[in-house]
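User: Hey, quick favor. My workstation is busy. Could you predict this chain's structure for me?
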Amino acid sequence: MLNYAIEELGHSRVELAELLNSRSRASEILSRRRPLTVEMIPKISEAWKIPADLLIRPYKIERVA
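Assistant: No problem, here it is.
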């Protein structure tokens, strides 16, 4: 959903990093190496007007070797 919001809705990786207070955390989330936390979901939902239920759906986390 976040990649869609960045590619299609005009948001940016920089905006996400600012919302999460961390460029590296935003990068990890977008590359699916780290899941969204309960604290992150309402921040993103409110700022980007994305329904929270779309952000809480489970997704596969890529494991780094």
